[in-house]
Each structure stands twice: as structure tokens, then as C-alpha cells.
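A quick aside before the break. I want you to see a complete sequence-to-structure record at least once, exactly as it would be stored in a machine-readable document. Don't worry about memorizing anything.
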Amino acid sequence: MPKITEILFDCDNTLVLSEELAFEACADLSNEILAKFNIDQRYTGPELLSDFVGQNFRGMVVSLQQKFNFQIPHDEMEGYVSQEEDRVIAKLERDAKPCVNCTPELEKLYASKQYGLAVVSSSALRRVKASIVKVGQDKFFPPDHIFSAATSLEKPTTKPDPAIYLHACKVIGKKPEECVAVEDSKSGATSAIRANIPTIGYVGSYGGSEKQKEMTEMLTGLGVKIVMQDWKEFPDLLAKVEAM
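That is the input. The structure line, written in C-alpha cells, reads:
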């Protein structure tokens, strides 16, 4: 296996505890959309999180349209995407916190100068940057090493599409096998694996040992070889990946 020279981090609930905040913020907007199209279903933030974790808002609304058989016109969709981004960013700028023990590990990686560090997210670029700035992690990532499936690609998409990982590798100038991805969700891990990037799963942002066990089984079932419960484990687990 080639030497690992770049680490690609998902953002939401991997670097920053942002998913619950984001889904709280977009539940109202999703329910407004469903009401407008005469769909009786309504969601709470936790229900949206459970059904659509790892997807960006655009991908989630596409899934809602498929599930409930309705169609949003293109221009209207773009307006909803913009509204959701503004609502979520306002909440993140107020309340976002880093994942437990994550920032000290980023400090060590950054100081070691052994690896390039990048963020590869499904979320909009403004949202990703707002999250990492709020928790003080922006100093670890060059501005041109922050990638968004919603914003950075010519055609917006969302994980599990591997396009954003392949784009990040191309821009950074690395082969997938020279990288390691860190992902917390089914869609994120699937995206990295489809791009042929060795992947470390992270389940520390899931509350309770039962949920963490369930997520560990799901991630390993996808092909994730190593799963991390606490960021303190990262140096040892990265060494295991490098030894594979």
C-alpha cells in the first residue's frame, strides 16, 4: 500500500457536532415544503436526522420528493436550498461544538507536518466553513482544501456519490490510496469506499453504547476496516491503516 500522505475528514458529527443542530434548523423548512405540496407527513429534527443522516439538504429534499411523489420546480428548489443554508448557519454560529477530543488530535496532526489535512463534506461550503471557524478548527485546513459536494462540484451532488472525494483527490494531487478518510455515516463511508479511499469509521458522536454498536456493525458491513469510538484512539488506528 502506498504511503499515506493526506487525511480527509468529514465535517458534520466527525469534526463538529453539527448534525442535530442542522436538522433542527431544517425540520421547519422541510415541513413547510411538505405542507405546500399537500403532504400530510411532518418531521421533527431527530426524525430527519434518523432518516437522512449524512445527506445534504438538497439530497434530502430529492429523497422526500421520491418518497412522497411530488416535484419541486428548479428555481423554487434553489430558493429552499439557500433558505436552509442561512437558517442552519445561524444556528451553527451560535451553538456548534467540536466533537469530543477531536481538536487536540488535529493539533497534533497539524504540528507533525506528516500529513496534508482536508475537509470533504456533503454540506454547503459556507456551512462547513462556519462550523470549523466556530469551533476553532479552521487553522488546520488550507482554504483550498475544504470541499463541498453541494458547492465545489460543477454539478451539485451528495454523498454516497463518490464524486466529491474523487474531486478532492484530483485538486490536492493525491491518489485515493495515498489518503485516509474519516466518516461517521453510511452515506459518507459509502462515498469514500466507492472512491477507493481507506476509511476509518467514527461512532463517538452517536449517543449511547447500543447506538454506537449498531453504527459500528453497519460501517464494518459496508467495508470500513477500522472503527473509532473516541478521537484519542486516532493515532493508533491511523498507524493500523498505514500497516495494512
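Two observations worth writing down. The longest strand covers residues 116-121. Residues 19-95 form one domain. We'll return to this after the break.
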